[in-house]
Amino acid sequence: MPKHILVTGPSRSGKSEWAERLAHRCNKPIIYVATALENLDDSEWQQRIEKHRRRRPSHWQTLSVPYDLCLTIEQANPPHCLLIDSLGTWVANGLEQDEESWEAIATRLLTSIQQASVDLIFVAEETGWGVVPAYPLGRLFRDRLGYLTRQLGVMVDTTYLVTGGHALNLTLLGNPVDKF
């Protein structure tokens, strides 16, 4: 049975590094699925992407998948492990989708994960811990990412919260809200 893991937490908490450590420990060929869109006009964004690249082992395969994450998961074959970094960036890339289209994409993603024949490690940002965004697109992003993170959290084998430089295994410490 493939293992599915969710690593979530706030910005700069160490969640990507924790996910990379988990991927390394799985002792399988790693496919790093980068969801970021490169923007050569944004040097700060490019520096962030480059920092992630430098941290990855050279033998890991990297795929740039800003949009069709479902297809990437569906086409993956054992014995690979997909490290998907990050769910928030992927959600942001599709914010122009209307609600009906988005719901179909989210449902397909969740189905793809349930049917995946490979290990999956997701990195997802926690965005709802602060103030409610003052603009509609910010609220839409927060709500869509929050929905997917909640669905994944109760669906995967293990969910970690990384905050303050520590990884907490929520699967061991918590109770799924949907199962009360």
TrEMBL record:
It catalyses: adenosylcob(III)inamide phosphate + GTP + H(+) = adenosylcob(III)inamide-GDP + diphosphate; adenosylcob(III)inamide + ATP = adenosylcob(III)inamide phosphate + ADP + H(+); adenosylcob(III)inamide + GTP = adenosylcob(III)inamide phosphate + GDP + H(+). One of its GO terms (biological process) is cobalamin biosynthetic process. The keyword Thylakoid does not apply. GO terms for molecular function: adenosylcobinamide kinase activity; ATP binding; cobinamide phosphate guanylyltransferase activity; GTP binding. Pathway: Cofactor biosynthesis; adenosylcobalamin biosynthesis; adenosylcobalamin from cob(II)yrinate a,c-diamide: step 5/7; Cofactor biosynthesis; adenosylcobalamin biosynthesis; adenosylcobalamin from cob(II)yrinate a,c-diamide: step 6/7. The active site is at H52. Its EC number is 2.7.1.156, 2.7.7.62. Transmembrane segments: none annotated. Keywords: ATP-binding, Cobalamin biosynthesis, GTP-binding, Kinase, Nucleotide-binding, Transferase. GTP binds at residues 9-16, 34-36, 53-56, 85. Catalyzes ATP-dependent phosphorylation of adenosylcobinamide and addition of GMP to adenosylcobinamide phosphate. Belongs to the CobU/CobP family. PANTHER family: BIFUNCTIONAL ADENOSYLCOBALAMIN BIOSYNTHESIS PROTEIN COBU, PTHR34848. NCBIfam families: PRK05800.1. This is Adenosylcobinamide kinase.
